Amino acid sequence: MWGFLGRRVLHSIWVLAAIIIVSFLVIRLIPGDPVVQMLGLQATPENIAAVNEDLGLDLPMGQQITSFVQRAFQGDLGTSIIKRAPVNDIVFDRLLPSVYLLLYATVLALIISVPLGALSAIYRNRVPDQIVRLTSMVSFAMPQFWLGLMLILLFAIQLDVLPSGGYGEGFGGILLHLTLPALTIGLYLAPQLMRTLRSSLIEAIDSDYVEAARSRGYRESRVVGKLAMRNALVPLISVLSINIGFLISGTVIVEVVFQVPGLGALLVQSVLNRDYPVIQGLILVFGAMVILVNILADAAYAVVDPRVRAGMAAE
Amino acid sequence: MRTLAWAGRRAVGLRGEAADLLRQAQTERRWSNVTLGVGIAIVGALAVAGFFASVIAPADPNAVDLTQRLLSPSGKHWMGTDPFGRDIFTRTLYAIRLDLIVVLIITYVPMVFGMIVGALAGYFRGWVDAVTIRVIDAFIAFPFIVLVIAVVAILGPGLQGVYIGVLAVGWTLYARLTRGDMLVLREQQFILAARTLGYSPRRVILRHAIPNLIRSNLVFSMADIVLNLLLLAGLSYLGLGVQAPTAELGAMVADGQSFLLQAWWVTTLPGVVIVVLGAGFSMIGDSLADRLGQKFGVVG
Description:
The complex is a heterodimer.
Chain A: H1 2-28, H2 34-39, H3 45-55, H4 61-74, H5 87-122, H6 127-140, H7 144-158, H8 170-205, H9 208-215, H10 220-242, H11 244-257, H12 263-273, H13 276-304, H14 306-314
Helix pairs in contact in A: 1-13, 5-6, 5-8, 5-13, 6-8, 7-8, 7-11, 8-10, 8-11, 10-13, 11-12, 12-13, 13-14
Chain B: H1 2-51, H2 53-56, H3 88-124, H4 126-141, H5 144-155, H6 159-185, H7 189-196, H8 201-237, H9 249-256, H10 264-291
Helix pairs in contact in B: 1-3, 1-10, 3-4, 3-6, 3-8, 4-6, 5-6, 6-8, 7-8, 8-9, 8-10, 9-10
């Protein structure tokens, strides 16, 4: 298993390299003198020299690359132009809200999609299935920022049961404040999980081992609920890991709508403020998150599905 | 005797199963016809409304009239007015036109490019393929919107950044799809025949392979259109895409969000239009995917 994971990590190196390149280029592709663009009205010669030195922009190109990579691995991401604080600290403060939001959204998506996906598979091509499929087509087309505002309108303004945004204190407070944002992302993810679950469950229901259990006289609820469902749930892991990019994209917008102090809101704010060192750092952090989730998903796959482990041993 | 009875039951059972399968296929076909029809009707109606915006619209999309702020929907203003007193129905029509044009460009230009890259990689294999697939994997793993925002950050907010950002990233999914198909296709008899005849790779790819690769790309493009619509609206909502005062559906949603309490329609109605338009495209895509035996969606 460790050998398998090791190979996956090696595979991720390509992704890592690409992320470093994009992050490296963000500042260097700005038309005109990037530092003057960044500083705007504060572009005095001293400030320009300071930023140039901080970001290593005064070095020859070859050295810029090596020093950038070196500093990225040391976790030194430069200094924010606007906040005048190390990018490291700024980004780190924003990391947890985003991670909580992603986890909460995934949990909600599973709670929504597992029963509905099962319903859709059991009543294949009948009314419940068609309702579920139609709803999933509509929700696929729903802009998250709009859905978020609609949830605010319903739950925060009309019903007044949940906060319209921000970030609470303590576990309960955070849970409460993140409910609507997590629901917004969860409702986007749920249809995709539902589709996968529907088709994998249909496949499982039609398979021989389920037929065998049925012919032994087990109750249908047990056959579907225990036997078919267990195998049908496995592909959800890979759907989740493939979707991590889309999930992060979702948090970018949703954090702005609900004013969650996370990485996504910071990214948008930094683009509008032209705070390039922060943008550069955020690209690295988002990239690292994607790689980490993919490796975790591979590990989870190996734990859940014995065939994957067997395949690894055979390799 | 018992064996015969068993065989009889078995035959009846099989016939029952076959009938069941047939019924299932028929329901699926009917469902697919309905969704295709409804989808085409929705997209068609909205496209016509958008393209004749200047004829249909009752007002000027950018005419500010502060005495007419935040009026609720009525006979005069079908969708009410926004915080600047502009007629939301008029702005919606113009926004549909803008969104459709931009979305078609940012979907189909990358599709053509991605198909060519994917076909080349799949046809030549070897190091061309190895490099291409690494680049594609790296792009696909990364959050799409973050990459596009990075390009917008470089070029400054506006449509230019959106165009270049999506063109830079959007081709990768098409390239991966086409490459996979091409790897299968290149081993088939007619491609081998074309190569044996000594046709140039250019001719084999363009005249023989591409016509067979285009269908799955078109199905996929329906899902991509929806995503790109949401992306364009999302970036404009964040203030990074289409800039004020130009009417764009996502930007219109943003216009109303500070007035959610007094004037729900400013935010709600343009969003409903996005949902309806997107649902129309996904219905078409879902139905086409069923017919061609493919999965509809971006992943999985």
